[in-house]
């Protein structure tokens, strides 16, 4: 990747400066590590705050273990694809938590939106939170409700945790895979007790509890056979 960043040039032959390369590397680290970690944190928080949803997701994981052939010793991609309830939990987490605050775009032509003109060359920041928490799109938008994803057809532009268009995040499937694997083992084996459940939330650079989710983790005995 470093070689590519050092060699890439635009149509005028200009290469990236050292400062620009450093910025891009930091962005890759942030997007590839911090975002998935924060999404996992919020999923655990929401599950602990909603015991019925927690139990439903846990029972799904237990059923996966029960159906697992004796010859298998670990989680498989086939099993992850069977996690329909957990997938909805993750989708709802990404909607409510709104980890990314905005998208960064540039108008390539003059654009007219509801009578307003955005001139060519202007920088545009679509505000993700205003979309994910729009009551016209999501009734009771601040409510954590994974069942809203039951048989839901997502309209273009209404759900954009990984961006949209030609700049859609290339790591979106990997991120959901990472979160799914963590939650599978967490639901089966652990519980979280936050020490400051009512603490405030910070939104930059990523949405997170002000205390970084200071908590006690308790191991629980398996309830499945």
Automatic annotation (TrEMBL):
Please give the cofactor(s) recorded in the UniProt entry for this protein: heme
Molecular-function GO term, any one: heme binding
- The residues that cross the membrane are none
Q: Which GO terms describe its cellular component?
A: endoplasmic reticulum; membrane
Biological process terms in GO annotation: brassinosteroid biosynthetic process; brassinosteroid homeostasis; sterol metabolic process
Q: Which InterPro entries match?
A: Cyt_P450, Cyt_P450_CS, Cyt_P450_E_grp-I, Cyt_P450_sf
The record's subcellular location field reads: Membrane
Family statement drawn from the similarity comment of this UniProt entry: Belongs to the cytochrome P450 family.
The family database entries (PANTHER family) matched by this protein are listed as: CYTOCHROME P450 26, CYTOCHROME P450 88D6
* Name of protein: Uncharacterized protein
């Amino acid at each position: 990747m470093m070689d590519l960043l050092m060699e890439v040039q635009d149509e005028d032959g200009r290469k990236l400066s050292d400062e620009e390369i450093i910025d891009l590397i930091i962005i890759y680290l942030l997007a590839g590590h911090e975002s998935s970690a924060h999404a996992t944190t919020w999923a655990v928080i929401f599950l602990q705050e909603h015991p019925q949803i927690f139990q439903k997701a846990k029972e799904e994981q237990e059923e996966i273990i029960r159906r697992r052939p004796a010859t298998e010793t670990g989680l498989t991609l086939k099993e992850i694809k069977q996690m329909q309830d957990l997938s909805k939990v993750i989708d709802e987490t990404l909607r409510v938590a709104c980890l990314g605050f905005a998208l960064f775009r540039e108008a390539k032509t003059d654009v007219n939106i509801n009578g307003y003109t955005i001139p060519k060359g202007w920088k545009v920041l679509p505000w993700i939170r205003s979309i994910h928490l729009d009551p016209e799109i999501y009734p009771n938008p601040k409510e954590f409700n994974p069942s809203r994803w039951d048989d839901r057809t997502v309209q273009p532009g209404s759900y954009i945790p990984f961006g949209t268009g030609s700049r859609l995040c290339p790591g979106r499937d990997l991120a959901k895979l990472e979160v799914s694997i963590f939650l599978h083992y967490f639901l089966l084996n652990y519980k979280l007790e936050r020490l400051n459940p009512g603490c405030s939330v910070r939104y930059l650079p990523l949405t997170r509890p002000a205390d970084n989710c200071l908590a006690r983790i308790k191991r629980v005995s398996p309830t499945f056979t």
